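Have a think about this chain, tokens included, and walk me through the fold.
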Amino acid sequence: MLAVCRGVVRTVEALQAVDDEIVPVHVDATDLYESEEPALAPEVERRQEIVFLALDLISGRIDFGHSLRKWLLKNGATEEDLAWFREHAVDLPVIGINLYPLFSRKVLLRSTRGLRVRMPYASADIIERLAHLYWARYRRPLMITETASAGSVRRRRAWLDSSVAAVRKVRAQGIPLVGYTWWPLFALVTWAYRQGRNPPAYYLKQMGLWNLDAELTRVRTPLVDAYKKLVAGGTEHVGLLGRTERVPAYV
């Protein structure tokens, strides 16, 4: 983590040295932790803090009062490392959040095998909840840099519609959610293909606007025209940005 974040800082410094109009978008692989068990509240909070760790490091926020400072020092970071990030803190002009209803909701529970994590399919309110968390912490414009659902075209269309509606709701509350990207454009080959021994088609996950068949031919779905209409509509579907001071506390 330290090496990756140092690389991010050095990259931003190098880019801005040649073009001060470059606007970095710092993309975060979000997770939203929760639990129905009150005893797990401290662990939920700790894991949620770790979700923000990379952005906190590169923006120089790991100070002496940070909740993860002692944890970092215990796990290999040095005082010099943390001081370097504070001295080389970079701005966060836009924060990109990647979220998926299949993966982004993490529910902690105890079982006979110890602490477990479930990933139930999330409703679109996960967008509002994550937007509030990131806005409250960083006060920077946000962009959904990746989102999609998997499965039938009907299921993907339901996520497209509900997630865009959630973007509209967030913007109406004054949180500057300034972009939305459906990813992938067409079905993807899952990471398991790297070590798998099955035919390539076995690893296809239909998450795109286009499907892929067994020969990797793109098959157009109605999602293509639906997404095209959203893009052409501008703010028609996501609404204008509301007044920031209207943003309520989100529990």
